[in-house]
Amino acid sequence: MTGAEPAPPPGPGRHTAALDLDGVRDKAGFLDRCARDLGFPAWFGRNWDALADCLGDLSWWGRPAEGFVLRVHGWEAFRTAAPEAAATAAEVFAEATGRWAERGTPLTVRYE
């Protein structure tokens, strides 16, 4: 996934979170960074299914009226260092985006 989807600007009705992938080179590092930067709950199991579960819940972020924005910094370097992990992560993000859209609360993932 190379193109960034235009994200709506942060606002009072949106929860905006940032995932900083600087220096992340593998799946384990990616999942650890998700736990830290996205404030995942203690039950986060640091695997792809647990990532999907957390992104499908987001109750700890509150319930913003206008949705969620996830800004992923350092995506291209991570994708180069760990192409298989990046591809799986992008799939999990895309599935979560679709699930939130079905609920009428958008989740926008912006790759930077």
From TrEMBL:
Residues 15-111 form the Barstar (barnase inhibitor) domain. Pfam families: Barstar. Gene3D superfamilies: Barstar-like. It comes from the Bacteria. Belongs to the barstar family. This is Barstar family protein. It comes from Streptomyces cuspidosporus.
